[in-house]
Specification:
Layout: E1 3-13, E2 22-38, E3 42-49, H1 61-72, E4 78-84, H2 95-110, H3 117-132, H4 138-145, E5 148-154, E6 157-162, E7 168-175, H5 181-186, H6 194-213, H7 216-222, H8 229-232, H9 239-248, E8 253-256, E9 263-268, H10 270-284, E10 291-297, E11 304-308
Parallel strand pairs: 3-4
Antiparallel strand pairs: 1-2, 1-11, 2-4, 2-5, 5-6, 7-9, 7-10, 8-9
The chain binds L-homoserine (HSE).
Length: about 300
């Protein structure tokens, strides 16, 4: 293969109770990226649209991943890449993760498909480290594997793909402020109480059980975060108003998408999603903060090839 154009989805990390260990991919929202083999070795970024990101391959999540993979594979060619960002960096929807995961997938195709999904996740985690200072796996693994994922272990890395009930719908609101993941990690406590840990890990177990058994009540009861959300919600204007509006309108749960500021709600079915969308929109209309909203499904496939030759 000499050329590939692909779509790398946006992702929701944490999913309330699963900080750094749960994530899912969002259908229809993401980045388009192209990768072209070049005779000159190394990685070059030739075009970025949709966001103001660096062209420096050592600083750019996608560029850094491609460069590292070419070196790791000892490739006798280079790769020129382009990126069209379909959503905003700093939104909490895994922008750097889409770039890093897309880069790992695209470079692997041009290298002859020599790496496993787990290895691609490790390369993409390096991109996350370049972009936000931490090699986090929840967003990148969701983009690479598609659907719901559990990062069961970081050392050694183990990713478990989870089922997602077919009626799950996502409603999200993106208040137009930017929160850097690094900053949102700095507000978190270094230690938590055992009683809080018990609540949190019981909710992770409940959520995963609910996903396997299509038990929407159990999913709803488990979408609770008492560890991270209380600290991070202070960074998001009117978080409680949105969450209450979503729950009162029938959402199974609502929380911070990744490190925010996007707030996601999970609903059962299209009708509930519409009610929740309208309720959230109404709750934000008079708040003097610009916002964007969308409704979507879980993207079961993950990164998609759009064109190649
Ligand atoms: N799990 C990470 C965090 C995701 O919440 O900091 C970052 O997008």
């Amino acid at each position: 293969m000499d050329y590939i154009k692909l779509f790398a989805p946006a992702t929701v990390a944490n999913v309330s109770c699963g900080f750094d260990s749960l994530g899912f991919a969002i259908d229809g929202i993401g980045d388009e990226m192209t990768f072209t083999k070049t005779p000159n070795k190394g990685a070059v970024i030739s075009n970025i649209t949709g966001a103001d990101l660096t062209y420096d391959v050592d600083q750019n999540a996608a560029g850094a991943v491609v460069k590292k993979m070419l070196e790791d594979a000892n490739a006798d060619f280079g790769i020129e890449l382009t990126m069209h960002k379909g959503f905003y960096p700093g939104s909490g929807l895994g922008s750097s993760a889409a770039s890093a995961a897309g880069a790992a997938f695209g470079a692997n195709q041009l290298l002859g498909d020599i790496y496993s999904k787990l290895e691609l996740t490790k390369f993409a985690m390096y991109g996350e480290e370049v972009a936000c200072g931490s090699a986090i796996a929840d967003n990148v693994s969701a983009a690479i594997y598609g659907g719901f994922v559990l990062v069961r272990s970081y050392e050694p890395l183990e990713i478990v793909k989870l089922p997602a009930p077919s009626e799950l719908r996502i409603v999200a609101i993106h208040p137009q402020i930017e929160i850097k993941t690094k900053d949102a990690r700095e507000v978190l406590p270094k230690e938590i109480l055992l009683k809080d840990a018990i609540t949190q890990w019981a909710n992770v177990g409940g959520l995963i059980s609910g996903l396997y058994t299509d038990n929407y009540n159990l999913i709803s009861n488990s979408l609770v975060d008492i560890v991270v959300e209380p600290h991070r919600k202070k960074l998001i204007p009117f978080f409680d108003d949105v969450k209450n509006a979503a729950i009162n309108a029938g959402a199974l749960g609502a929380g911070i998408s990744g490190s925010g500021p996007t707030i996601f709600a999970i609903c059962k079915g299209d009708d509930a999603a519409k009610e929740v969308f309208d309720a959230i929109e109404l709750s934000y209309r008079d708040k003097f903060v610009d916002f964007e909203m969308f409704t979507s499904k879980i993207d079961e496939e993950g990164i998609k090839i759009l064109h190649s030759f």
